[in-house]
Amino acid sequence: MISAQKQMITTGYAGLPFGKVSQCDAGSVGLLGVPSEVDSGPRYGASLAPDALRKMTGQLGTSLPVNGRDLGNLDLSGDWLGVLMQLVTQMADRDVVPVVLGGASDVASAVLAAFPDRPVVAAMPLARRDLIERPSNTTWVGLNGEQPADVWDQISQRMMDWRTARQLDEVQANTLDVPERAVLWIDLSVIDLGHAAGAVGLNPGGMKPETLVSVIGAMSCSWHAIVITGLAPALDTRGMSELAAIETLNAALRHG
Amino acid sequence: MGDAAQIQFDTIPSFLGVPVGDLEDLVPGQVAIAGYFCDNLSRPAAEQRYLARQLRYASGHGKAPANAIDLGDVNVFPLEPDKHFSAVVSQCVAVLETGARLVLVGGDSSGLKALGTAARQVTGADVPVIEVTGGIAGNLPNVQPVILSVDLQELAANWVSHPHRLAGLSPAQMAAQIVATPGNVIAAAIYGLAPALDNRGSTEVRAALAILREVSDRLEKGAG
């Protein structure tokens, strides 16, 4: 076996050693794959994302700006949503930042349920009602114009900050009002289909991958948790969507 | 077999359609372009060695540079690094001693390392390497010999079939940097791209071919 192959088997995402939550140091990250699958629609393959991202970081020689452990993939039998919430809570209690690689959006819902009172930064094309109804405000990145009127009304009434994909692509200096700490949810469907097709949602008016990376990287925000969903790597044979996810995660972790 | 078919069959694809020649054909100031089929020694990535072959196959259009020659491929010994390095260095020295300028095409960055050693042997001094991304460019005198390093991994993701990074240069930006390279460019290495061998690879191969043409033109110009 050549050394590169051996390394890919023995190390996890971006060269992180595999381990358990108890082995994660305070201030580090605990990376967990949760390979759930979308349950509707013609575009699927989100369950392949965690392993595809590990493989690509191995091929690219990516390293994270912080230390941590790769906790492997969650077993999706039984009450896995409950187990996921428990694991994320355990990590947060140890001052470890959970980095959760979905999977479908149900993964993010479980992570957010573990932080019910925390603000959220959500990069996604369509505002979700469950986020709007949280007690803390959500900052919206990359919305498109397809939101129902009542959703816009609620965002407006709650004075939530938001930017459309077009605003962010055209005005790079457009800074968002972000909290000091928040949960970051990146739904890869926020990226424009023409730039990176490997997402479970079709978004022809989405953000450029570079814009997503720069917008998230410009946020002087530290994260309670980071969750990435909606990546369907098999739909993007060039690997742009995986690359966007990897670079966005690195950009997010540079500020903690 | 008809004449047309015979001509097509006999045509040897060469870089940019330039004549194929050998060491004894070189004259001072000429640009010698050689393939470098080694991608396992420095920043290894399989299939970077195929770039030279793909660029030859893709070279069918446009006017061939008047003062360039396709020297064939450098002899390589990828499984014996010491033997490989000394052999590549001595071949590069032999080319540079004729007064010709040398472009190594394809493979990994180990070709650039050999070029640096060869240039030092020929000029008697260390020869600065100028990266296509800019780097130490600035106040170099026009007569200062330099080596141009064109790492095609610096291309932005939109231009390559298997991107390594989102941000990067477009081929036009890279060409502008090549034109603006200061000093007397005596050698260059174009490397770092593993071209996809199907239709998806056509964009990156055409971009690399345009970059090779710019490099050839810049070397022909010599002192900047």
Shape label of chain B: globular
Helix content of chain B: 25-40%
Strand content of chain A: 15-25%
CATH top level of chain A is: Alpha Beta
Structural class of chain A: alpha/beta
CATH H-level name of chain B... which superfamily? Ureohydrolase domain
Assign the CATH topology of chain B: Arginase, Chain A
Largest sheet of chain B, if any?
6 strands, parallel
CATH superfamily of chain A: Ureohydrolase domain
User: Strands across the major sheet of chain B, in which order?
Assistant: 2-1-3-6-5-4
Distance between the termini of chain B: 49 Å
Specify the biggest β-sheet of chain A: 8 strands, parallel
From the N-terminal CA to the C-terminal CA of chain A, the straight-line distance is 36 Å
Q: Report Rg of chain A.
A: 17 Å
Please state the second-level CATH architecture of chain A.
3-Layer(aba) Sandwich
* CATH class descriptor name of chain B: Alpha Beta
Biggest interface: A-B, 12 and 10 residues
Could you give the count of β-strands of chain B? 6
Number of domains of chain B: 1
Number of helices of chain A: 9
Task: Give me the oligomer status.
Answer: heterodimer
